[in-house]
């Protein structure tokens, strides 16, 4: 039984293939088109390259697929080549399935929060999903409560905003303080990174511009517009650039505080309603890793699972898994092994050699006997290293197969990588990756976080040991690693620990600013040559730039 899932909305298009209940492959369209979030592709969208990619992993063609499933918020152009073969399901249902059916839980509460979901019409007005509560078990997913926000504008635009949307508010505020992607979408991740630099100056005013009661978040178009007007007024009043930056930081602090307050209350309501011990999260709001960790700290839920592709880039995975387990094509039994996010294709040594040969005169290539020790010593000596291994990971976070790695002990490393490699804002932090069995020595959490979706604190006595991955407030967006899930990254961390006594590395995505994460060996070499990286590890090959003549 082969099931092809297609996902996305008007951005973050993706495809996934599930065969006989096993996820064979999943990839985002952006990795193949090299256009961030696959946004604004126009007619090229109908190529649906991700579908061909995942089918190739099973040596299959579209004709070999038994079922094609997509969420109904997806731009229909993306599914055009499959015509009337597509079965459409709800957007939030695809999110819920993506996280529940990748969890280790037999039964769980599920919470989906994003900017906008599937549309419905009431009395001639358009509404969209904003927050949906579910329970999940072997019999499927069931809605506990669904909140729909009214469309706030009369025009049909890609950036239409719905009322009663916590994700919509966060993105609108991100845009208002100047955080956009190259395609013009909001960049909430930047807001989350800036928030710790701010103060509580606007917390009370933001809190007065929404209503929260008994598991319902409500915010009218008028309230959101008042919030945006407040931001514009404060930025104008600030005058000089330094004062404006302070306003932006304080606004980021306030919207982050509001989001935490809302999500925690929603989680408490869902726990009270279901009595569940475990919680699964999905939707764009579930990428707010600061809030995620506070759910574990401040609500009755004992365990938490968030799918690594929590945004729209995970809806293909969810569509295919819902068709497998929610529509009677398989029986849901959670796997004893952690869900692997490494679902891209495996590039061969021949392909790596070809990528290196393309730029042969600009590279020096070696193949050390002990790769891990050699690279660990280079990292300890200060080398910023591109790390290209195995199958690419799904989702927006580099999880050790398409990563840039560096020594976290160096106080200047964060500024160095931001300026010379990533070319991005200096306030944005970098994540630590740590051996799971050693995380408690450095961080105030023993909860495994293999997908970089929780933000605990760095232990006070260790903050000076790993300053490059310690944010301004002492926190860190942590990734933990096991030998079972990622043996090569585990091996490198073990070697770095032996060399330095620190089982932690700085980990950021293998790309330049506003680029998708690299997918192929050719792209890894190109990115290495066009940025200030010192070293590239391509499979077993260690690559340096040739000295200029």
TrEMBL record:
Q: Known CDD domains for this protein?
A: ASKHA_NBD_TobZ_N
Q: Where is the signal peptide?
A: none
Q: Which InterPro entries match?
A: ATPase_NBD, Carbam_trans_C, Carbam_trans_C_sf, Carbtransf_dom, NodU/CmcH_Carbamoyltrnsfr
Residue stretches making up the Carbamoyltransferase C-terminal domain: 376-545
Q: Where is the Carbamoyltransferase domain?
A: 2-72, 82-321
Homology family: Belongs to the NodU/CmcH family.
By what name is this protein known?
Carbamoyltransferase
Ranked from the top, the taxonomy reads: Bacteria, Bacillati, Actinomycetota, Actinomycetes, Streptosporangiales
């Amino acid at each position: 039984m082969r099931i092809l899932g297609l996902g996305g909305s008007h951005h973050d298009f993706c495809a996934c293939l599930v065969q006989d209940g096993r996820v064979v492959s999943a990839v985002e369209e952006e990795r193949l088109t090299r256009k961030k979030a696959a946004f604004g592709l126009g007619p090229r969208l109908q190529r649906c390259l991700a579908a061909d990619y995942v089918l190739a992993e099973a040596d299959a063609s579209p004709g070999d697929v038994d079922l094609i499933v997509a969420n109904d918020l997806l731009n229909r152009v993306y599914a055009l080549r499959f015509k009337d073969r597509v079965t459409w399901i709800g957007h939030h249902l695809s999110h819920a399935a993506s996280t529940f059916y990748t969890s280790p839980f037999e039964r769980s509460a599920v919470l989906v929060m994003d900017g906008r979901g599937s549309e419905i019409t009431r009395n001639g007005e358009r509404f969209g999903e904003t927050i949906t509560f579910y329970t999940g078990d072997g019999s499927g997913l069931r809605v506990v409560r669904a909140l729909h926000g009214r469309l706030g504008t009369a025009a049909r635009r890609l950036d239409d905003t719905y009322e009663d949307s916590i994700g919509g508010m966060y993105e609108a505020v991100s845009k208002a303080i100047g955080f956009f992607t190259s395609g013009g979408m909001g960049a909430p991740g930047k807001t989350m990174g800036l928030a710790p630099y701010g103060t509580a100056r606007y917390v009370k005013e933001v809190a007065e511009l929404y209503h929260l009661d008994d598991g319902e978040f409500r915010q009218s178009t008028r309230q959101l517009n008042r919030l945006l007007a407040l931001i514009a007024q404060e930025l104008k009043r600030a005058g000089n650039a330094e004062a404006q930056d302070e306003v932006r930081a304080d606004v980021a602090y306030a919207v982050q505080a509001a989001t935490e307050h809302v999500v925690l209350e929603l989680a408490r309501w869902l726990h009270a309603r279901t009595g569940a011990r475990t919680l699964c999260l999905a939707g764009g709001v579930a990428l707010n890793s600061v809030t995620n960790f506070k759910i574990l700290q401040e609500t009755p839920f004992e365990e938490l699972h968030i799918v690594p592709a929590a945004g729209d880039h995970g809806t293909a995975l969810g569509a295919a898994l819902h068709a497998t387990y929610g529509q009677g094509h398989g029986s849901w039994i959670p796997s004893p092994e952690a869900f692997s996010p490494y679902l891209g294709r495996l590039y061969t040594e021949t392909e790596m050699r070809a990528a290196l040969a393309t730029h042969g005169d600009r590279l020096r290539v070696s193949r050390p006997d002990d790769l891990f020790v050699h690279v660990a010593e280079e990292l300890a000596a200060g080398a910023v290293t591109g790390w290209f291994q195995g199958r690419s990971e799904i989702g927006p976070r580099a999880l050790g197969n398409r990563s840039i790695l560096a020594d976290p002990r160096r106080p200047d490393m964060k500024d160095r990588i931001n300026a010379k490699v990533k070319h991005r804002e200096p306030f944005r932090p970098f994540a630590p990756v740590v051996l799971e069995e050693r995380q408690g020595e450095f961080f105030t959490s023993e909860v495994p976080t293999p997908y970089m979706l929780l933000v605990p604190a760095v232990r006070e006595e260790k903050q000076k040991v790993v300053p490059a991955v310690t944010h301004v407030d002492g926190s860190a967006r942590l990734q933990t690693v096991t030998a079972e899930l990622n043996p090569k990254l585990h091996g490198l961390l073990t070697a770095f620990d032996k060399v330095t006594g620190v089982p932690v590395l700085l980990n950021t995505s293998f790309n330049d600013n506003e680029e998708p994460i690299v997918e192929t060996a050719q792209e890894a070499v190109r990115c290495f040559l066009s940025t200030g990286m010192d070293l590239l590890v391509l499979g077993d090959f260690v690559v340096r730039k040739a000295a200029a003549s």
